[in-house]
Write a structure and sequence with these properties.
Chain lengths: 321, 285
C-alpha cells in the first residue's frame, strides 16, 4: 500500500498544503451512520439512523440533549462525541448557573479567545502534535433568542450555520433531498419538518425501512424544549417507522391525536416518494466521490469502500456510529 | 490527572528543597482548573481569590471594613423603563472625601448598575462587567447581556466571594429595560438578592422605600417618576449625614441608557423639627 509521508501527525503539512490527519478525521464522520438536521422559522429538528453493532446489542444513541434549548446529533467516533457532549452540557449548566439563562447557540459553537468552545476544542486538536482531531461531526440544533439554529461542527474546527444539513454514511442522498426541498422548510409546520427529516433519512437508508429501533428524532423550538424520541418513548406509538413518527408528533405537539385515517395521508405521501428517494441513491456514488476528492491521497480508496458499505461494517470500524 | 510532586522528599523532610523549585499545590490546582472540562470557560476569574493572597505563609487577610464608601442607591420602574439615582459622594469614614464619584454606571445599551458600599470593590465589579461587555462586542454576534443576566451574574459573584469569607463590600442595584419590560433588582454584599418595582440600598431602604411604597405605580410617566425620585433623594439627603446634595439620575429605556450630569436639589432647612430634631425623640441627643 502506498504510504503517505505527510500524515503521521497533525502538525505536518503536505506540499500540496493539506493536513492529512484532519482529512482522515473528516472521513471518520462519513463512516458514521447518517444524521440530518433542519430548521423552519420556529423549530429545529434532528433525525438520525442508529446502528447496532450486533443482533444482540441495543442501538447506539446518536442524539444527545445538551440543555432544554439545545441538542446534538453525532456521526463518527461515538466516544469523541460523548466527550464533546459532556463538555457542552457543562458549559450550558455553567451558563445557566452564572447568568440564569440559556446559552446562545452561536456562542457554544463559536471559537473565541478565552472561551474554549466546541470549535475551539476541535481546533486545538489540530495544532498540537501530541493531539488528534476529534473524529466526530456534530449537528448542533437548538433555539435561542435569534430563533432556531442548525450548526454543523466539523473535526477540522470549522463550523457552519445551516438551513438543513446531513452527515454520515450515504448522507449525500439525504443532502440531495434537502437541497431540493429546503425552500419550503422556512414556513413548514413541525409535522412537516419532521416528515422532511424522515424523508431525508429514508433517502440515505440503503436497504430496509425506517423503524422505531433504527431511527431517533428530536425536536426543539419555540415554546418546545428539546425533546428526544427514541426506543421506549417511541415504542408505544409505533407500528411502522414513518407512520409512528408522524403519529407521535401529532400527538405530542399538535395537541391532537392522529391515527388511522387521519394519519394515512402522511404515510401514503411518504411511501409514494420513496421510489424517488431510491432514485437519488443512484447519483450518490458520483457525488460522494466528488465530495471526497479532497482526500484522494493514501488509503482513500479503502476508506471510501468502508463508507459505502457502512451498513454491514461489522469489524471494520466498530466504534463509528 | 496531573502528576503532583510532593513538596519535599519523604526521606529528607520538609525544608530540604527550596520551595520555589517545586510548583506549589496551589499553582498546580490553578493549572488543573484551567484545563479541566468542568472548569467554566468564562467568568471564572470573578470567583477566584488572588493566589498571591494565599502565598507567603501569612494568615489570609480580607477586607474587614469598607474604607471609601457610597451611600444609598435608589431605583424605580416606570412606564417606559427604570430610573436609578444616587449622590456622587465617596466618603472616607464620615469625611466627605470624594465629591464627584459617579456611582451609576452603564453596563451596555440595556442595563445600568449603581452601587453603594466600598467604592474600590465597585470599581472591581465594573471591571468584571466591562470585560463581559467587551467579550460580547468582540464576539460580534449580536448577543449582549440582558439585565436579568447581569443581575444573576452579580448575585453569583457576590455570593461566591462571601463564601470565601472575602466579600465585595457592596450593595448593588441593577436596572435595565429589555424586551419591552423594565427590570430592577438588587444584590447585597453577601449575595442576598431580589427584584422589585422599586428598590433601594442601605439607608434608602428605611428612608426612601416607604415613600416609594406609597407613591410608586408601575405605569408612572417619566415626569412623575422623576418627581418621585427627587423627593426620595431629598428625604435621603435630609436624614443621611453621609450624603451630599449632588445627585445623578440614570435612565434606562428602549432608547438606551442615559446618565444625567450631576445636579443639586433645592432644600429647605427651616422646618421646625429640623431646628430641634430631638424634641420628639426623648433619649436622643
Amino acid at each position: 500500500m502506498f504510504r503517505n509521508q505527510y500524515d503521521t501527525d497533525v502538525t505536518t503539512w503536505s506540499p500540496q498544503g493539506r493536513i492529512f490527519q484532519i482529512e482522515y478525521a473528516m472521513e471518520a464522520v462519513k463512516q458514521g451512520s447518517a444524521a440530518v438536521g433542519l430548521k423552519s422559522k420556529e423549530y429545529a429538528v434532528l433525525a438520525t439512523l442508529k446502528r447496532a453493532p450486533s443482533e444482540l446489542s441495543s442501538y447506539q444513541r446518536k442524539v444527545f440533549k445538551i440543555d432544554d434549548h439545545m441538542g446534538i446529533a453525532i456521526s463518527g467516533l461515538t466516544a469523541d462525541g460523548r466527550i464533546l457532549c459532556r463538555y457542552m452540557r457543562n458549559e450550558c449548566l455553567n451558563h445557566r448557573y452564572v447568568y440564569d439563562s440559556a446559552m446562545p447557540l452561536g456562542r457554544m459553537v463559536r471559537q473565541v479567545a478565552d472561551k474554549a468552545q466546541v470549535a475551539d476544542k476541535a481546533q486545538v486538536g489540530t495544532q498540537r502534535s501530541w493531539k488528534r482531531p476529534y473524529g466526530v461531526g456534530l449537528i448542533v440544533a437548538g433555539y435561542d433568542e435569534a430563533g432556531p439554529h442548525v450548526f454543523y461542527n466539523c473535526p477540522s474546527g470549522n463550523y457552519y450555520d445551516y438551513k438543513a444539513f446531513a452527515m454520515g454514511a450515504r448522507s449525500q442522498a439525504a443532502k440531495t433531498y434537502l437541497e431540493r426541498q429546503f425552500e419550503s422548510f422556512g414556513g413548514a409546520s413541525l409535522d412537516e419538518l419532521v416528515k422532511h427529516a424522515l424523508h431525508a433519512l429514508q433517502a440515505s437508508l440503503q436497504d430496509g425501512e425506517l423503524t422505531d429501533k433504527n431511527c431517533s428524532v428530536a425536536v426543539v423550538g419555540k415554546d418546545t424544549t428539546f425533546t428526544l424520541l427514541e426506543d421506549e418513548a417511541l415504542a408505544p406509538y409505533i407500528t411502522g417507522a414513518l407512520a409512528s413518527a408522524c403519529y407521535c408528533f401529532c400527538r405530542l405537539f399538535a395537541g391532537a391525536l392522529l391515527e388511522d385515517e387521519a394519519l394515512a395521508p402522511y404515510i401514503t405521501a411518504v411511501k409514494e416518494e420513496e421510489p424517488e428517494a431510491a432514485g437519488m441513491e443512484a447519483e450518490q456514488p458520483a457525488a460522494e466521490a466528488e465530495g471526497g476528492a479532497a482526500a484522494a491521497a493514501g488509503g482513500e480508496g479503502e476508506q471510501q469502500g468502508g463508507g459505502g458499505g457502512g451498513g454491514d461494517e461489522g469489524g471494520a470500524a466498530p466504534m463509528q456510529e | 490527572m496531573l502528576h503532583r510532586p510532593p513538596s519535599h522528599s519523604a526521606a529528607i523532610g520538609p525544608g530540604a528543597v527550596p520551595c520555589l523549585a517545586l510548583p506549589t499545590p496551589a499553582a498546580l490546582e490553578q493549572r488543573q482548573q484551567l484545563g479541566a472540562a468542568q472548569a467554566p470557560s468564562c467568568g471564572a476569574e470573578a470567583f477566584t481569590v488572588d493566589p498571591a493572597a494565599l502565598a507567603g505563609g501569612q494568615p489570609r487577610k480580607h477586607t474587614q471594613y469598607p474604607y471609601v464608601t457610597g451611600t444609598s442607591v435608589l431605583g424605580i420602574t416606570y412606564k417606559d423603563g427604570v430610573l436609578l439615582a444616587s449622590d456622587t459622594l465617596g466618603a472616607y469614614g464620615s469625611t466627605k472625601r470624594y465629591k464627584s464619584f459617579e456611582r451609576l454606571r452603564k453596563v451596555n445599551d440595556v442595563c445600568a448598575v449603581g452601587a453603594s458600599g466600598e467604592l474600590s470593590d465597585f470599581q472591581y465589579i465594573m471591571r468584571l462587567l466591562e470585560e463581559l461587555s467587551d467579550d460580547d462586542f468582540c464576539m460580534d454576534d449580536g448577543h449582549h447581556l440582558k439585565p436579568h443576566e447581569v443581575h444573576s451574574y452579580l448575585c453569583r459573584v457576590l455570593y461566591n466571594r462571601r463564601n470565601k469569607f472575602d466579600p465585595l463590600w457592596n450593595s448593588i442595584v441593577v436596572g435595565g429595560f429589555y424586551g419591552g419590560k423594565p427590570f430592577l433588582g438588587t444584590v447585597g454584599m453577601i449575595g442576598t438578592n431580589y427584584t422589585d418595582e422599586h428598590v433601594a440600598t442601605g439607608f434608602g431602604n428605611h428612608l426612601a422605600r416607604p415613600l416609594m411604597r406609597e407613591k410608586h405605580r408601575p405605569d408612572m410617566s417619566e415626569e412623575e417618576a422623576t418627581a418621585l425620585m427627587h423627593e426620595c433623594l431629598k428625604v435621603c439627603y435630609y436624614r443621611d449625614k453621609n450624603s451630599i446634595n449632588k445627585f445623578q439620575l440614570a435612565k434606562v429605556t428602549a432608547e438606551g441608557v442615559t446618565i444625567s450630569e450631576p445636579f443639586a436639589l433645592e432644600t429647605d432647612w427651616n422646618y421646625k423639627l429640623f431646628a430641634n430634631p430631638a424634641a420628639n425623640a426623648p433619649g436622643t441627643w
